[in-house]
Every structure is written in C-alpha cells, then in structure tokens.
Amino acid sequence: MNExxxxxxxxxxxxLYTHVPFCSTICDFCAFYQxxxxxxxVLSYLEGIERELELIDCDRRIDTFFWxxxxxxxxKAEDMDRLCRILVERFGVxxxxxxxxxxxxxxxxxKLEVLKNWGVTRVSMxxxxxxxxxxxxxxxxHNLKQIYRAYDLIREAEFRxxxxxxxxxxxxxxxxxxxxxxxxxxxxxxxxxxxxxxTFEEDTALFVKLSQGKVSIDEEKDRSYYELAWKTMADAGYxxxxxxxxxxxxxxxxxxxxxWRMNExxxxxxxxxxxxxxxxESNLPDLKKWREALEIGKRGGVDMTEITAGLVLEDxxxxxxxxxxxxxxxxxxxxFGGACVDDLRGKLESLVRVGHAENAGKRYFLTDExxxxxxxxxxxxxxxxxxx
Length: 388
Prior knowledge:
The protein is α/β, with parallel strands linked by helices. Helix content is 42%, strand content 20%. The strands form three sheets. Strands 7-8-6-5-4-3-2-1-9 form a nine-stranded mixed β-sheet, with helices on both faces. Strands 10-11-12 form a three-stranded antiparallel β-sheet, with no helix packed on it. Strands 13-15-14 form a three-stranded antiparallel β-sheet. Helix 7 links the parallel strand 5 and strand 6. Helix 2 runs parallel beside helix 3 and helix 2 crosses helix 11. The longest helix is centred in the middle third of the chain and has 17 residues. The chain is globular, with a radius of gyration of 21 Å.
C-alpha cells in the first residue's frame, strides 16, 4: 500500500465544520459538547474563532461549510452576522454548500435573513418528533406549534435546501406513532429528511435511565422501525442515499457525503474534529480551555493521529458502505494503491456470501439485510488494513 496515499490523496474536497456549543438545556439523548452560554461566553467564543482561523494554514477554497452544535440558532442575529463575516473574510463563500443547524424554538426571521444574505444554502432543523408526548420524553424544549412556525419561517426565507431531522425508537413509541411522525414530516415537503435511531450514549440522561431499567432497547422493534422508514420515504419520493438520510433530487447533504468519502475537513470551535494536512485531531471539549490554548498559539490537542493510507482506507470502506452507492474498488485503488484491492475484495465477498452485500463489477453495496447490521459490519472491518 502507498504509505503516502493517506496524506496525499484524501483531499479531493475540503469542508469546514464549525461547532457552536451553546444550548438552552441539555437534551436527554445528546452527548455532544455543549454549554449554556451567557453574553460573555458567546463573545469569548466568537473571538476564539477569529483567533483559531489565524492559526490555520490553508490557502484553498472551501467546498462546504457546516455549523453544528450545540444549537447554532441560539446565537443572536448580530452574532450570526459576525460569525458569517469571520468565515467568509477568511475563506470566501463555500463553493458548493453551506448548512446551518437550527432548533425550532430559536428560529427567528432576523437570523434567517442574516444567514440568507451571507450565502447559506441549507438549513437543517431538528424536529425529532411531531408528538408532544415523545418530545417530552426526549427532554426537548420545543413544542409542535414551534416546529410548524419555524418551518414556515425557514421556507419563507427561500433557502435552496431544507432538512428535517427525526428520531425513532423513542421510549414508549409505537409503529403507528412513528408512521404518524413520518407522514407529518413528509406533508411539509422538505427537500431532505434524516431519520436517526435513538442511541444511548454514555454521560446522557437517557443512558442513566437505561442503566436504571427505566427504558429498554428492543432490537426487533428497532428493525421494524428501519424497515418502516425505508418504505415510507421511498413511497413519498425520497431517495435513500445513506442508512439514515433521504433526499429529493439535487438535495443530498454535500458536506456529509464528502466526510463519509473520507475527504478533508477543518474543525473550528471547542470539541470540533478535523481531518486535514496529514493528521486527525479534535479541539479541546471545553470553551475556556480551548480559548486558553488558542492564546498561546495552539489548536487541537486531543487524540492527534497521523494519517496513513490504511487508516483512511478503512474508514472510507466503513462509511462508504453506509451509503447506498457503496464503495468502488477502482476508486479506492486509485486513492490508496492497488496492493490493497485483493485483500479488500476478499472482505467484501465475505459480506456477499452471507447476503449482507451485493456487487456490480467493482462496486459493492449493502443489501437491506446488511444495512440492518451496518454498525456490526463496521466493527468487524476495523483493523482489516495495516495501519502504520
């Protein structure tokens, strides 16, 4: 395997992920780094982003911007304007796509106007459910009325793409309730829908409830939920392009696709991860410590790993198989060296033999049965490539 391939051939596209850590409350299921931001913290964050950009050695145009969190829409319009200006002055408007995550309770017309004026093309709103009882079970701070009001405001602003996030396998949820959620989302006619199975992450309120026996995991029921999602979205004209993501033509999330294909991305803000300039690392998951490091000219600092061909190839396979288009051995061979192909083909053929994958020429993709166990397949593939 070409040992320089991991460093020299991953950068076909470049994304910029900006983590906005502020939340009004911590949802029961969320394990992302977040803080309740006062005015001082927000200003410190914005100043930190400016400082961090000064430390990044990059003269390339960015293909995609993505603001995640936290809750980026908690920023005031004036703070959104400043953050947009900071990024655009440094890199210009992204060439392909600019996504901002928003929560229904914090969507405002003045914020949307700022985002639209700076060139944001895609808004992703976390509805999670259209059932008030299930929203309460998740610890969400919005209600059904706020979802519809926020969606109307976003549509009125005429962004190129609008996504709705939904969650399933919620505590106490039935098939009928899930189908009702899907139908409510589809009725709004978003350009993209993401449906995520609830996971129990450590250090979350839901994980504590699981350990106490207050909630449980039902794998058979989860399987039926996946099947219901796939069928319902297909019937409504949404193309599934990844295990949990569906889009109308021309509305796939380019930032996520570039990440799943193991291209490059820069991470800004506390806890943001990046794969860039021959290494992977994450920023400190602490607003104060992140700022202190920047003041002495340091970024990253957590889990730094030198990129090798084996490391990136392995992840390109694992994440590529999550996509309906699968992985192409010719493409992987061109990126990482032909010596990897025979061993890789053997791994993929073993998935074909057990009915978890199919192939068309040199392209391999998971069957529905394989997508049901995609996480287990990924775990089995860890370590197949020599990482060194």
